[in-house]
Design goal:
about 180 residues, 2 helices, SH3 type barrels, 13 strands, six-stranded mixed sheet, rRNA processing, ribosome biogenesis, mainly beta, seven-stranded antiparallel sheet, chaperone, Elongation Factor Tu (Ef-tu), domain 3, RimM_N_sf, 2 domains
Length: about 180
């Protein structure tokens, strides 16, 4: 079955196998990782097709997450899943407060600088980095941006990030264009 990516989110990846009974190692992209197992449906994506899988008995094992895939009962079958992406429906994401956003909602927003009375388009959010202290927006140049520079801007609501308008596809920041 083809799955429109605008309705699905990449939540993890099968990174390897664990043991001889068909368990797989997972690289989980949800925060916190335990949330990965709260989704009621998981799809693995192979080429352009997605197929449902059922995960059972997910747990932390040392520093890695492992899970049993229902119907996969040996290491050989588990090896066939290595490298596949695991997608979940966006509709199953918990509703956030009005001032909170999922990373996927911020990607693609145009970022406008309001600094010392000037308003300039700095670029478009390509992705975010988790640094420990705070998340960082990675901007790439886009049509109409002030220049062709890639920028890193800390995601600090109320300090650097002044507003997010998802419906307009924009974010306004207090950031000097030369930084």
């Amino acid at each position: 079955m083809n799955t429109p990516e605008d309705q699905m989110l990449l939540a993890g990846k099968i990174s390897g196998v664990y043991g001889i009974k068909g368990w797989v190692k997972l690289q989980i992209f949800t925060d916190p990782p335990e949330n990965f197992f709260a989704f009621t449906s998981h799809l693995i994506k192979r080429r352009r097709n997605a197929e449902p899988i059922e995960l059972a008995d997910g747990r932390i094992q040392g520093k890695a997450w492992v899970a049993r895939v229902v119907g996969v009962d040996n290491r050989t079958d588990a090896e066939l899943l290595k490298g596949t992406e695991i997608w979940v429906p966006r509709s199953e994401l918990p509703v956030l407060d009005s001032d909170e956003y999922y990373w996927h909602q911020l990607q693609g927003l145009q970022v406008w600088s309001e600094h010392e009375g000037q308003k300039l388009l700095l670029g478009e959010i390509d992705h975010l980095l988790e640094t420990g202290a705070n998340d960082v927006l990675v901007l790439r140049p886009c049509k109409g941006s002030a220049d062709e520079r890639e920028r890193l801007i800390p995601y600090l609501p109320d300090t650097v990030v002044l507003s997010v308008e998802l419906e307009n596809g924009t974010m306004t920041v207090d950031w000097h264009p030369e930084d």
